[in-house]
Amino acid sequence: MLFRSSVDIVICSLFLHHFDDEGVRAILARFEEAARTAVVCVDLYRHVLARTFLPVTRPVAGWHPLTIHDGVISVNAAFVPAELRRLAPRARVRNHWPWFRLSLELDLSRPR
């Protein structure tokens, strides 16, 4: 591969939920090829409170209807910790409460 071990760390933020399981696995495999040290991904946590946050706070925050629509769709497409663990069994998956984020950390310095 052209980019094999071309960077120290690959960082991915709020991106993976746009892909199906096969797409996520393929992306993570490419990230792992490109990184020398680690892959770190942060994405949305699919949770009922995250799903209702934008609609409930619209009167106070003045969210545009498109923001609410897109936010709810994104949360519906997001992950729960077990799904990320299944997609990347070697990675450490952590829940960051109360921000409704999950992190996936793959330490490439550890033996496979």
Structure report:
By secondary structure, the protein is α+β, with helices and mostly antiparallel strands. It has a single domain (7-107), classed as Rossmann fold. Helices cover 43% and strands 26% of the residues. The chain is built from four helices and four strands. It has helices at residues 21-34, 48-61, 65-77, 81-87, and strands spanning 7-13, 35-44, 92-96, 101-107. Strand 3 and strand 4 form a beta hairpin. Helix 2 (48-61) packs antiparallel against helix 3 (65-77). It starts with 6 loop residues before the first strand and ends in a 5-residue tail after the last strand.
Largest sheet: 4 strands, mixed
The termini sit apart by 20 Å
**Overall mean confidence score, pLDDT:** 94
Number of strands: 4
How are strands sequenced across the largest beta sheet? 1-2-4-3
Specify the CATH class: Alpha Beta
CATH superfamily: Vaccinia Virus protein VP39
